What does this fold into?
Amino acid sequence: MSPAVFSHGDLRLYLLALLAESPQHGYGIIQALTDRTGGTYTPSAGTIYPRLAKLEEEGLVTKTADGRTTIYAITDAGRAELTAREGDLQGIEAGLNDSVRLIANEVRQSVQEAMKSLRADLAAAAREERSGAAASSYREASARADGRIASREELRRADASINEFRARVRADLRTHVAKGGLLPATVVTQLDRALDEAAHAVTAALAAAGPARPRD
It folds into this structure.
């Protein structure tokens, strides 16, 4: 989905809807928009912050400083505008849902095409085996196909684990800050360090696993 999905005034209204759910800092708003559009729309800070400033000028949001972070929250006037434009908001959300469904369909199509290619490889190998020209080629193609299918399933599990971790940590952080808790820079630094160590560990494990080898 491109930024054009948010027609004139739509992004402004959707920002109010996000802040109605919970107070947010600018980066959190950008990340929420990325998540809710399936990763196809990540607005720049130059897009979001001027709109937040305009909403503040109109008295629809407020901002408070929490250390080096600015937290934005919706006002009663902002909630009143949301209520008055509930129909418009429903239309925006329907458009976002359609875009996410389109992405899911594209992913399914990609998987189906990959499976079709694998089946073609197996069929070609089977023909070679029947002709007696390359019996071992079939076994290798079959092993590659099994390995690719298994790897795709493991990749799906890995994605699910990463998303679950991400959602849990983000929810804990947002809830903590929304309740007035402090988020010291040392905590974020520790988070960065832990994620970096985890990434290096995964890279090392993949290197140790080596390239896929066909099974006998």
Observations:
- The domain at 3-87 is CATH 1.10.10.10 (Arc Repressor Mutant, subunit A).
- The CA atoms of residues 66 and 180 lie 9 Å apart.
- The first helix runs from residue 10 to 21.
- DSSP finds seven helices and three strands in the chain.
